[in-house]
Amino acid sequence: MSPLVITVLVLVGIALLVAIGYINHLVENRKLEQARQRADLLDRCRRCSDISESMPGQFMSPALKLLLSRFELALGERLLAVDKQNAQIKERVAELRPLVAQGDSIPVRNAPQAILTEAKAKEVRFLFEALHAQLTRCTQDGMLPRNEAQQWVKEIRHLLTLLHIDFFGNLGQQALQQGQPRQARLAFERGVQYMRKQADAGRYQAQLQQMENQLARANSMVLETAQPATDENSELNDGLKALDDDDLWKKKNLYDD
């Protein structure tokens, strides 16, 4: 065998090894990408389901339930495309299809939840933040038209305002029931101030009037008792300060344009 033939064979062998290595690299990369995609879709499905099931009933509407079910169904179908053997997702997709088909008649079984502590208020706020994150991702993925997404961002802001109103009102009523009119007055004052500073304050006129009446009642009780001022540096002084400071709606929003 001539040196030329040997050289050609060696070069061909090297080329084959390089080609095999490159093909293996592509295959591994594809497997990694599919695994990443499966994990991402599974996480998003779980988050949509958690939001849908955990949202307090006073903030959950048929339209919101339908939106979350649509998201979860679309994500589940995408997941089945890369993970056809996932029996749990198959079962969930089969459950969601008839629910989504009901449209605005979709059943809402979320029970109302009392918002009586700052911890509970933060918990619900985190649900709104998670909802906003899924709304953004699904809009970027083409699951939701941009104009519809803009309307939902406004609706989430409205729900966040209702959360504040619910919290301050409940905290004030709880203080009255416990014979603490000063604490009640502080809670109602915070609620009134919060509603008055809203850009669309007129939307909350009924709630504002009710809380102003509660504030007047609490103030009268304080004047009647005429007790020395007590230390009010409690959980209430912070109220939802964390919600105000960390309010996700103060951040630049994709849909504000």
Q: Strand count, sense and closure of the main sheet?
A: none
How much helix, percentage-wise, in residues?
Answer: over 70%
Give the structural class.
mainly alpha
What's the number of extended β-strand segments?
A: 0
Mean pLDDT: 85
Query: What number of structural domains do the residues give?
Result: 2
Mind telling me the C-alpha Rg?
28 Å
What best-fitting shape do the alpha-carbon axes yield? elongated
* Sequence of secondary-structure elements: HHHHHHHHH
First and last CA, distance: 74 Å
Coiled coil: 194-221
Protein name: DNA repair protein
Keywords: Coiled coil, Membrane, Transmembrane, Transmembrane helix
Transmembrane segments: 6-27
Characterization of the model:
The protein is mainly alpha-helical and 257 residues long. The chain folds into two domains: 1-113, no CATH class; 115-251, no CATH class. Helix content is 74%, strand content 0%. The protein has nine helices and no strands. The mean pLDDT is 85.
